[in-house]
Amino acid sequence: MDERTSRRISVRAPAMASGGEVPPEASGDGVAAEAALPRARPSARPAARASVPPASGAASGQDGGLTEKKQLGKKKATKKKASKKKATKKKASKKKATKKKPRVVVEAAGQVLELPQGREANAGRRSEPPPPSSPPPPPELSTLLEDVSGAESDGEARRRAAEAIGRIAARLYPDAASRDQADDRLSGARQLLSTEYYVRRWTRIAMRGRSERVDDFGLDRAYEARIKPLLDFLYDHYFRVEVDGLEHLPEQGAALLVCNRGGALPWDGVMLKTAIGRHRGGARELRWLVEDFAFHAPFLGATLNRAGAVRACPENAERLLARGELLAVFPEGVKGVEKLYSERYQLQRFGRGGHVKLALRLGVPMLPVAIVGAEESYPLLYRVRAFSRALGVPFIPVTPTFPWLGPLGALPLPSRWRIRIGPPVQDLDGLPAETANHSLRVNELNERVRNQVQQLLEGALRDRGPGAYV
Length: 470
Known about the structure:
The chain is α/β, with parallel strands linked by helices. It is built from 18 helices and 11 strands. The strands form 3 sheets. A 7-stranded mixed beta sheet has the order 3-11-8-4-7-5-6, sandwiched between helices. It has a two-stranded antiparallel ribbon with strand order 1-2.
């Protein structure tokens, strides 16, 4: 290629790249074309072209510039991705280097060797001793584990396990005498600081001398006979109880006695039981329901249960009435116990009428009963609820004697008692058992029974006179 042809190609190249036509001077000789082309600075020429819009073919030039920029951007992105991949590969290699190789335990030549994975074939060539380990457990421990895992309910297995524990403890602690003394002192201090110790202690005291034969609800005939002299003394000389209306009790069959509640301790049920037991030579016997806090109280609950009290719940009441028993209920519940001395003998709400539903379903007569004197035996001045939950009681009573006199403050005051039993409630006669399913009717009957008990209370208070203790 000669010099003139090369000059023509160089002149046509910029014109074709810019998308315009080749000037006519460029088609002549190379000298004229070279003279006709203006010389421009390389840095200023692209700026001038960008500022002046081309007449024709400019769109293709701009598209070419954009595609070049996109390609550059893609190259940069791929470079960044490649650098990130290299960084992640380096991190993964570092993690693999830091990880410990899994080790394999191989037994060779009577020795247990721990080798890295992949070198088990060379286990016989290693003569290094095994690392020091803890001494093997005594044979008693393996026997203990077998017994415990074998049969948990087997008494012989338990005995063998206890003997194995004793032998292991003797081997681990040779000087067991001093250690046992220290442990005994520590456990004794812990027991004295816990309330469960006193609960168990008082419950055991209350259950001393119990008979082997009790009824389904815990009544102990032998215990009842032992405490009868004490109850007779309280009935005749201490509380000086007077009873009216015993003739309204049925000679046989079940009956439901609805009573008012009073006093911090349930002496009202005990005195009512004694009064009915004396009537007609003890032909009828009374059972009564007590609240959960009294039934589960240490010493008190066991004593009341052995004397004839039953935990208050609908199931127990229905079973007793189905057996033809005389049953006394106290619908006021805890609200009746919480009454202050200024609110004495003002009946609280009679619950939701559970006693009315029982009488309707079983068809038993319902008798209102008023007990006067129980609320003066424990005149409640104030209720403390600070530590009541820890002791398992709804409140701690403050009376003129308790807690100032300590345990002696729990003794009742010698108030005069009067018990009045009313005739059966006539409103329940002739009502079908389905009436118990109608809540409005049950509430109406419950309120009528409450009004009758309140009237009996007012009459008994008038008959007793102004002197509550004289």
